Amino acid sequence: MKILLVEPSYYTRFPPLGLLKLASYHRSRGNQVRLVHGIQEDLKFNPDRIEITSLFTYAWKAVHEVIKFYRGEFCNAKMRVGGIYASLMPRRLKSFFPFIDINIGLCKEADSYLPAYDLLKGLKEWEKWDSTILFTSRGCIRSCPYCVVPKLEGKIHGVVEDLERYIYPDHKRIILWDNNFFATPNWKKILNELLDIGLPVDFNQGIDARLVDDEKARMIADLRTPLIRTAFDNISEKKALTSAVEILSKSGIRRRKIFVYTLYNFYSEKHHSDIPATFFERTKHIADLGCVSYPMRYEPLTALEKNCFVSPLWTDCQLKMIGKARRILGYGGAFPPYVGLVKKFKKAHSFEEAFSVYPLENRNDKAQTVERKQNAEIILNM
Amino acid sequence: MVKFTDEAFGAKLLESITAGLYDGNRNCLREYVQNCIDSEAKGIDIHFENSQTVLVVEDNGCGMDKRKLEQALHLGRSEKPPTAIGWRGIGIWSGVPTCRRIVIITKKRNHPKLRVQIDADELRQQYNLNIPAVKVLTDVTGDIEELELGGDESIEDSQFTTIRLEEILPNQRSIFTEDRVREYLSSVVPAPFNTEKFTLGKEISKRLSENGVKIKETPILFEKQKIFRPPYNGDIFFSKIIDKKFIVRNETVAYGWLLSSKDNRKLDPPNRGIYFKKKGFTIGDENLVSNLHKGNYNQWQYGEIHIIADTLKENAPRNNFEANNDIIEPFYDQVGKFVGQLQLMNQYQSDNIVTRSIEQIKKQIEVDEVKPARDRIIHLKKKLQRKRGFPKEQALQEMKEIINKKSVANKTSLRTLERTIEARMKEEPLDVIKEKTDRFKEFIKTSHPDLKKHLDKTTKKGKMELNIDAMDPVKILLQQKTGLTLDSICDLSRRTYGWKEVQKGDNPMLLLSTPYRDRLFGVMIYALHDMFVNTSKHEKGQPSFAFYESMTAEERLDTLTEFHMTQNLILRLIEKSNPIGSCGSSKS
Q1: Which long-range contacts link B231-234 to residues 24+ away (Cβ below 8 Å)?
Q2: Which of A252, A266, B115, B540 could form a disulfide bond with A274, CB atoms 3.0-4.6 angstroms apart?
Q3: What is the pLDDT averaged over residues B451-463?
Q4: What ipTM does this complex have?
């Protein structure tokens, strides 16, 4: 059989791991596979089946595009769509395209296969890819309301041991996609294996600051980690973050190599929502610690448009302010602990003062913001 | 009677069957290729997938239906007739030590496409558990499933078998590299000769079939390239194919062919060694044959000994033959003796053929190393007088003629070379010293008369050495021109021409033309003057003069000539220059 694997042409920094595993699965069944990126005319490959992946819900258009196109090209081929969008909004997808099959969540039969990274060499988008992406565990011990992981993968469970066999020959680094690496029961065994393998490791999804202790910090420091990612999504984690940074720093990791993601614009009726003031406080605190902060704008799990959701506790203007500040005051979307920036945050009395690039444009807007802020505080105190 | 049940066979047995017997895990390739050939495949395609993490062996043979596939999974039982190549029923399992899982996908005409998977990982883990082998085998072998046919396959026509060794273990990756797999395949499987590069291959194949050797030479592609069996270069051998039949009790049990190196030196693999072959597959390695001869053996031959007799059976690891018959011993004895005869032939060749030395001598003569070339010829002639006898082995007799012929040709070449060398040596010897002495003497004739006087003095005595006194005319001329004493000349020139601090107001001693040239001129005079005034420097062993002392006679003559020539030039320049005051231009 001939299987066409389609990665829609949305923006992403990572190759379609799921499709690559599916490719190996199909090859193991004697099938011929072909991987394409987006719409590819004149394929000279007549597939019996088409497997399409998807990413964030707001990147749905590219998915619909390829479904339409390849259905038109190969109307007899069976078509199956998987990935995040397909898993979160299967009914929406099905209502557009009743003829497709949908794979919700992980594709269990393919998950344990070594991804067919060789297919990437044939795509100009990925030909230089040189990293092995690994999950040593799935799921998470936390259940943060803004995160999709607990919904898709559930509670934490280990999936891989004996890492070496999953490292693709010739790859130059390892990217771990564990959602919460240190929450995995056998983290120590895995870290030791990683140390033995000796390739640089990127804990891409970040490490949980609340779980960092001396032993873990020492082991991370021994790995050739390009940078340490962690998060400060809620002001209540301040103490944990401070202690994690101190411990990491003591183990010899430069503070500037610690990259702290800061969620903003999150709103939930049931959970602790986020307001500009606490976002400012978090950002300032990270700067004080000498680390880099990276604002992450909250998107509802099923957002169909990116950057459209505005929390009732935020104004559009405030959200735009952050965007502008990241571009002008920051670097690469992040706020590194530049002396000027640290000072600016320290001196600022409010969110607006901290993130304004120019003097505020009109007082009305400012007044409005102040008013909203007060409202927000009232709501939070209720 | 003791009754055995499944419980009687433990999992440990499986380890010895799968891992234990197959020293060197590439052996599984032989098993899979054997199976392909047994299934009457017209072509075998072996390739890696996913950067050498998966090895795929595909054939277009008859494929298997469900019953056959089940049988193929049986251990130690085979439905294959004994004429088939693989008949021990281990084949499929031989990949267990190599990979994470073995997958078999097969289709027989008019039968569904089937797939079965062996969890090799799991099997290896269960080796050491104390449980019945039958249970382990059942646990690790998946169900046989029917696979959907693709648009380009048909139930009636499609037939094939594919073996996939998936996710080759990290510790096996260095064994299963492209180079090593190709090397293994070409040395073990019944691949054809590359008759373009090895033209004798055609004739050899013909002789093999004439002598009852049946090889199913199946085209094998590895990574899209055809696999050929060695040798790959026919030019390094004498073109005579040596035939040898091994007959035990009036039955030809094996037929061998050999080629012998033209050069008196050990051949390099893969074009080296004598190999046992059965149905085209190599049994053991080159040591298996050479070890049958007690004593040294120089690897100057390439050859194959094909087993014809059915009674000579290879053992399970295919590294030797089974010893449980009465043919093997006399056969091995014959092979050992034959190798011994080959060694005698090698000795004979070594005594009579010196082609390589001749080539080297030619090169020496080209670069004018005539004397060492002559010494070498003398040595070779002595060597060629040594006469050890040629072996009596019938199969080798024709080689004697070939070697003798070559020997005669060698001797002729040697004589020619000798004559060339003699002629060269008779030619006027290239006496460089004499040539250079003549040149120096020629120079003296044309040198400044004052210098000539001094130089003539020494050369007339036959000494070709630096003449310190030859500096006197320079000193005298300087004193005349400037009206100064030697000491003040030194002092003045040092100051004036700037090798120490130049005193303001000091004028140069002599003027040549522009101030800049005057200055350079002065430095030159001083350098020369200083050298000769300070005579202690000229004593032997002084570091400043050591360069001169350590020269060869030839170099010394060059330096001597150049030195006095420079002196001569300076003398003439001083003569041409103006005493100070006679030309006002440089006073500034």
Answers
A1: B231/B198, B231/B259, B231/B270, B231/B271, B231/B302, B232/B194, B232/B197, B232/B198, B232/B270, B232/B271, B233/B197, B233/B198, B233/B271, B234/B197, B234/B198, B234/B199, B234/B200, B234/B201, B234/B259
A2: A266
A3: 79
A4: 0.84
